[in-house]
Amino acid sequence: MAGNIFGKIFRITTFGESHGNSLGGIIDGCPAGLKLNFEKIQKELNRRRPGQSSIVTQRNEPDQVNFLSGILDGITTGTPIGFIIYNKDHKSEDYKHIKNIYRPSHSDFTYEKKYGIRDYRGGGRSSARETICRVVAGSIAKQLIKDIQIISYVSSVGNIEINKSYQDLDLSKKNIEKSPIRCPDIYTEKKMLSLIHKTKKIGDTLGGTITCVIKNISSGIGEPIFDKLHAELAKAMLSINAVKGFEYGSGFLGSKLTGSQHNDLFNIDGTTKTNLSGGIQGGISNGMDIYFKIAFKPVATIMKKQKTIDKYGNFSIIEGKGRHDPCVLPRAVSIVESMTALVIVDYWMLKKLSKYSEIKN
Amino acid sequence: MAGNIFGKIFRITTFGESHGNSLGGIIDGCPAGLKLNFEKIQKELNRRRPGQSSIVTQRNEPDQVNFLSGILDGITTGTPIGFIIYNKDHKSEDYKHIKNIYRPSHSDFTYEKKYGIRDYRGGGRSSARETICRVVAGSIAKQLIKDIQIISYVSSVGNIEINKSYQDLDLSKKNIEKSPIRCPDIYTEKKMLSLIHKTKKIGDTLGGTITCVIKNISSGIGEPIFDKLHAELAKAMLSINAVKGFEYGSGFLGSKLTGSQHNDLFNIDGTTKTNLSGGIQGGISNGMDIYFKIAFKPVATIMKKQKTIDKYGNFSIIEGKGRHDPCVLPRAVSIVESMTALVIVDYWMLKKLSKYSEIKN
Amino acid sequence: MAGNIFGKIFRITTFGESHGNSLGGIIDGCPAGLKLNFEKIQKELNRRRPGQSSIVTQRNEPDQVNFLSGILDGITTGTPIGFIIYNKDHKSEDYKHIKNIYRPSHSDFTYEKKYGIRDYRGGGRSSARETICRVVAGSIAKQLIKDIQIISYVSSVGNIEINKSYQDLDLSKKNIEKSPIRCPDIYTEKKMLSLIHKTKKIGDTLGGTITCVIKNISSGIGEPIFDKLHAELAKAMLSINAVKGFEYGSGFLGSKLTGSQHNDLFNIDGTTKTNLSGGIQGGISNGMDIYFKIAFKPVATIMKKQKTIDKYGNFSIIEGKGRHDPCVLPRAVSIVESMTALVIVDYWMLKKLSKYSEIKN
Amino acid sequence: MAGNIFGKIFRITTFGESHGNSLGGIIDGCPAGLKLNFEKIQKELNRRRPGQSSIVTQRNEPDQVNFLSGILDGITTGTPIGFIIYNKDHKSEDYKHIKNIYRPSHSDFTYEKKYGIRDYRGGGRSSARETICRVVAGSIAKQLIKDIQIISYVSSVGNIEINKSYQDLDLSKKNIEKSPIRCPDIYTEKKMLSLIHKTKKIGDTLGGTITCVIKNISSGIGEPIFDKLHAELAKAMLSINAVKGFEYGSGFLGSKLTGSQHNDLFNIDGTTKTNLSGGIQGGISNGMDIYFKIAFKPVATIMKKQKTIDKYGNFSIIEGKGRHDPCVLPRAVSIVESMTALVIVDYWMLKKLSKYSEIKN
């Protein structure tokens, strides 16, 4: 019940710390007979890789995944898929000075309280480095549900935000990926970039929001009442480092509308004229686009002096060392998509078991 | 894997539809030896009961819970606790006219797509009536973790919202419960009441937000990396009918701050000067207050004519009949607290298994 | 993680004690659209009902199941199926004398050690009365997998045993059910009956074995490596009260053979000439009959004086009161079949998710 | 729900095939603060290692485990423990001739039916080589529950069997380990050895039984009703390759006794005079020794010609190549102990959550 397993049918278990020998995972429940596109998996990893541009950490990791089992001649065999990614450029000495110190708004303190011990090197297990395993699994999940499109992008950085709905943006992969921030709106992107550079220069950090859209998903996907599709999406998103909030469809703004304003009226074909519902009713997809937004807090490691405490109850002064992102949002896009894919693949498979008429033969 | 089981250690399974014979559930994993206070359980049920005031549905249900097992002389025995609540005042005839019709922004359409069949009477399983079972289980959970305080209140209705942080409000049970809206700020409450009455009169409905605060919780509670405490809270909240969003600590606003603004600096005793983190770091409680806010969409059933479709592909006109809430927020407070208690009890028990030194003897 | 939930996909949670108000359960995960045959369910319950003949307990229970949810017009809706069976003829006063006494080879002692409290009335939760819920769920499972035949029968009572393999017996329902012992071999049955009567007369009890055969099951069912089909069957069987052993295929005797004697050679169509494997290879069905045998210890409650201890550390004399079975085997047949059906239905559904080619559309 | 995860609290997920790059696993839920004895782990691995003596396969594998995470300075940190064992001496060319052939009584046929594809090299995932991961996890589990002794030994090979109960044998590690067969009775061991040599010479193989004894276990361990301690042990044992049967306590023989013969009478201190129950009542340990016996079928790969079929529906002749065990029992002892430890550690931790009085503080 320790929390390192995710999923019901397509289940992933992961291991690894920021500065350990390696990180990896096991996918149990991937159907047999899927021809894997390894290049796509690596491309996905490259999207969250450090060192992509001047606005992210310069830690130099190839982030190459090695598959260890469950695949024969490039095809999944139905047995568990083991994989490993070696840490190459970890500089643990950067962390010795914090061995006994609790960094503000990091989980040093809470890991120590829970476990009585913590791997201080680069944040250990609590580092976002573990999300690399999520991307490996998520990119395989994506290949399973290849007709369903999962697109996410940076919709705000600090207080700079895109003032358009997702429908009014060019969400083609090409358009999003050409931006170092993965912001599909050029005008906003420039302002974001300038804010990031300015903030980095003074040793500070930024948060922001990511919007995710799921297109071409069929209706009938979700498992009420506790495992509603959006409930599991919320859990998946909040499980990502630094995420503070989740809203889908009309979200928090929707709470200010009246029923007559908020209800989505049907077209004759079962689609709806508006989509404030965000593609889900009662925890089950209705075939319309699913969209949600998640909030990231600013990176806790700043390059400024902070007064803090150590585990012996003394005050201490700390200042960020090492190679850190001033803003993780551009790299987090692939993590958001991966976790989304992991949720969707699970519910997509479970849907096959909903109707007796479809399973009896 | 159908979604009617919640929890890891203290697990609840529920059944029942809005207009069936009864609803009920089974709690598996409640420790033995807890002397139950049945009055408290019933009081909790009364908080979500219909017919409490003029602003909620007038369906007349005693909502009395009967315990069927797992208890001897008022004390839990460690075996499963079965319970049942009979439906007394269901008027299924109110729903015959929608047997073949999909109500806008309800789950009629999606249940039909997923299961090929749906219980149309009062929304069947998708009705919020099922949350009564959550309150039964949640109120037992509350008794297990009685030192931990879980308080929630209505923080906004439509666009009327309390402009104070929770710290500046009187969150005593007495103060919250004396308000029919469960809004602890008298000034705001009056405006909310007036808005609800006005909206009800024109046959429309409202949404809003509920804020929940967890006080006196110890540090070390939570199971990273996928089952972070706030991730599970998010799932629990989004599993409640009509919820569209969740944020904890600084939430969406926090995404606009810089790291140096957002970081919570430590006091010498391990508490923090500010609490933008919302009492959780890396998915584990740090001993500070945990607080979060959730958004509810407006009730989908409105007393106005709406054009919609039936399952045969024809247009149809629908108008709400039956007894409906213009705003569910006041009743939802106990549901929010119950789901919170269910999450906390689970992680509180799991924490006992974190350290070898504490379990070996 | 308390053990009252069974199954992965078709999951059953149960509650109830021997002398409580009622027993019941919830099935979560039954596919929608199954037309239930309620008569068949009741018939199955009647097979395990007390009072069927002179050789079983005379407790007079109608054992009528009431379905509370998840069914509309006799058809499953995909939502959880709640059900309840009221206890009618419990005579708790028969048990007052053992309130503080530990009966030999019962679980009074162990429940007290684990939970610190126990429901002494009729054995509480540890009574085989709980198996009634398994039969309700199992008989629904049987209807889902109706092409698969699950047949079990009493193959030995005490040291009287059928000396034929299952292939040489008439396993028609008619032949088995006409026997009060559910032994398909008339010659052996007579000897069993006589042994039971003789043993009952002297206040003693008997054990025996049940053999179960699964016919017409397709290949490819099972989930290695930990959840092998026979491993889950073993668990299901050992979870039944009084069961001490499980063997499938060649079983314990098979351990004495050599590889060349034991190997099942193939026919050209993929069937095998012999079936010492018992229809399963590597945890996955191969399409041949699956068969297994389970051992039941003799009933622990005997009508003879036994010296025992109480919870205060004193010796005491105990003598069985109440209405008890001298031999539970005839009633256990339906329990064995039910648990078998619960295992098979789960793996049968999971099989649908094994191959990508079959789930992608 | 694919079956490669075992355990509830101390959960292990494994991957790897006989002839792949490596095998490995992840332990999620190991409490923090356990100082690991790595030498003991390796010793345990050596007990199941090939090439130990002339009577087992000569495949030359160092079987050295590498730990990748979850450990700091030799102490568990509470985060997942990843580990890997590289395959060094796999000779896949030995298997090319069976690429399209189904070996009798192997799982070639069933894997193909289930997944539509199979890794033919050395049996792929279905090979007992995967049990190496169980031993790694099991030997860590053993260190957690170090006061509980788990001892197993070979009690029969083919039709040669020890005619003494476990109480009459010297079960010291020293005595068992000095025997190449891990049979603690010298007299019987010699006969076993001679039978194995004789059988190997003619290219045939043997099965047998292993007896396992758990000593010094406290009462109150087990989770009725479905997850009874012995039910989970049965599942764990049947999940081991080639196991055909499980019995605990009096087992199959117990089914022939009467209640008055079988009941275990109490001593004044709560122990029992006899222990036909096998240390478990109602699925919960009673503090007496737990003991059980499991049956292994003979190894399916024999060095004799067998007629079989290929996947295209043709007959074919096959003859064992490669390096195979004539009898796996001596190597299986450590696997049995490991799986036992995995079950016990889980229930031992869960027991801590049974009583409210013990968890509230």
UniProtKB/TrEMBL annotation, chains A, B, C, D:
NADP(+) binds at residue 48. The keyword Flavoprotein applies. Keywords: Amino-acid biosynthesis, Aromatic amino acid biosynthesis, FAD, Flavoprotein, FMN, Lyase, NADP. SUPFAM superfamilies: Chorismate synthase, AroC. Its EC number is 4.2.3.5. Pathway: Metabolic intermediate biosynthesis; chorismate biosynthesis; chorismate from D-erythrose 4-phosphate and phosphoenolpyruvate: step 7/7. It catalyses: 5-O-(1-carboxyvinyl)-3-phosphoshikimate = chorismate + phosphate. FMN binds at residues 125-127, 241-242, 282, 297-301, 323. Pfam families: Chorismate_synt. Reduced FMN (FMNH(2)). InterPro entries: Chorismate_synth (IPR000453), Chorismate_synth_AroC_sf (IPR035904), Chorismate_synthase_CS (IPR020541). PROSITE patterns: CHORISMATE_SYNTHASE_1, CHORISMATE_SYNTHASE_2, CHORISMATE_SYNTHASE_3. It comes from the Bacteria. Its cofactor is FMNH2. This reaction introduces a second double bond into the aromatic ring system. Homotetramer. Belongs to the chorismate synthase family. This is Chorismate synthase. It comes from Blattabacterium punctulatus. The lineage of its organism: Bacteria, Pseudomonadati, Bacteroidota, Flavobacteriia, Flavobacteriales.
